[in-house]
Design goal:
This protein is mainly alpha-helical. The protein has eleven helices and three strands; from the N terminus they run ααααααβββααααα. The chain has a three-stranded antiparallel beta sheet, with no helix packed on it. β1 and β2 form a beta hairpin. The chain is globular.
Length: about 250
Amino acid sequence: MDLTKAIGHYRATEAGAAWVEWGLTRGKHLSRTTKATWRARYCAAINYGSEVRGISIPQIAPIKRDTRISTAYLSKEDQEKLIAAYADYARPIAITLCFQGIRSGEAIRLDWRYVDFERRSIFIHRSKNGQQRSVPMHPRVFSALHTLWMERGQPKEGTVFLNYFGKPFANRAEGSGGGNPLLRPHNVACKAAGIKDFTPHSWRHHWASWMVMSGCDLFTLMRLGGWSNLSMVQRYAAVSSDHMKEAILRLS
């Protein structure tokens, strides 16, 4: 377990200090949601251990609320600027995140077995919530992946997206510890494009926002994006005042 390896040398009574150290080191670049997940597991283990050993339950620092305002979505101009700023090896995965809305972990795990060029679809065989789904392939994703497939010699299986060294990205994107492996190439691209407060996961929000602004209903968005219920996509119902204005003006 990542926590045990990182702070297992601490005593149980020092669990609070151990958590602080982990947050400043291994957990430093994790999202607030991911750190909250680790904290919940950590607290459960500490509470159980404290009860068994008959010691007072140590205080574990809460996850600080992120008060920064993240960019919900990019303009089309900034979208293209950012995609162009990615390194050649990372651009195909950026295009996929932008136009398919899949999670970083789903993209990293994508295998050529699940890319169907004949039907122009991508099968997500393993997702964060355990639900499988098949999604139509956007034309730009089709072009990027087909080009990559041809360059690789038309493989029948194997990891689709490879890192700078030609190896599969470390599968840490959805909470297994260590931070999102796409963060480095993404941050380099954002800096080059002058884009701020936009993380790899923001591509998913960007995609969902533009899907709604393009006329996609929330139920279809939920199914395409692999969300488990409609409440999770309600926030995209009012992504743009301009979009809502255009909608009301179409009423005759």
